[in-house]
Amino acid sequence: MPQRRPVAPHRLPSQLLHAALLVVPLLPPVAARGQSALSVPLECQLKQGRWQPCTLTIEQMGEHWWLQIGEQRLVFRSDGRGSVTLSDPAGGSRSVQPLWTAQRELCWDGVCTKGEFPLD
Q1: In whole angstroms, what is the distance from residue 50 CA to residue 36 CA?
Q2: 41, β-bridge pairs
Q3: β-pairing, 116-119 with 10-13?
Q4: CA 73 – CA 93 distance, rounded (Å)
Q5: What contacts 38, CB < 8 A, 6 or more positions away?
Q6: Which residues pair with 95 in a beta bridge?
Q7: pLDDT digits (tens, 9 = 90+) for 74-103
Q8: Distance (Å, rounded) from C-alpha 105 to C-alpha 16?
Q9: Torsional sign, CA 24, 26, 31, 35
Q10: How many CA atoms lie within 13 A of 31 on its CB side?
Q11: Closest CA to 42 of 75, 80, 68
Q12: Residue 22: phi, psi to the nearest 5?
């Protein structure tokens, strides 16, 4: 029987991240599978400011993720039905709507990301 070769991780544009984060809430949490959270280097923009390096960390696919932008952490939670809440470091929370731009950026009411996301 022929041996199977490992498959390289697929790299998909940021447009698919939102679908992965919201459409896959039935996957078991990363931590529950005995794996650490998935972190991905991206670029982020706050309120149409300059683009800067950031990290997306997915704690629970489709439910809980955050962006680390310098010292600032923006935490996102989804209820699995399309409602996303953004919590900021000052303790405020608000509902946000995802938006795809023509430049292939994923934004949530003034918080934008761009880059590639590995999906296994």
Answers
A1: 31
A2: 55
A3: antiparallel
A4: 13
A5: 30, 57, 58, 118
A6: 85
A7: 999 999 888 999 998 888 999 999 888 999
A8: 10
A9: negative
A10: 7
A11: 68
A12: -100, -30
Q: What is the pLDDT of residues 22-72, one digit of tens each?
A: 433 333 444 444 557 889 999 999 999 999 999 999 998 889 999 999 999
* Amino acid letter, residue 69: I
Contacts of 30 (CB under 8 A, 6+ apart): 36, 37, 38, 58, 59, 60, 61
Residues 6+ apart with CB under 8 A from 95: 83, 84, 85, 86
Q: In which element (H, E) is residue 110 found? A: none
Domain ranges within the chain, ordered by starting residue: 30-119
Residue 46 carries which DSSP code? E
d(C-alpha 85, C-alpha 27), whole Å: 20
Which pTM value belongs to this model? 0.69
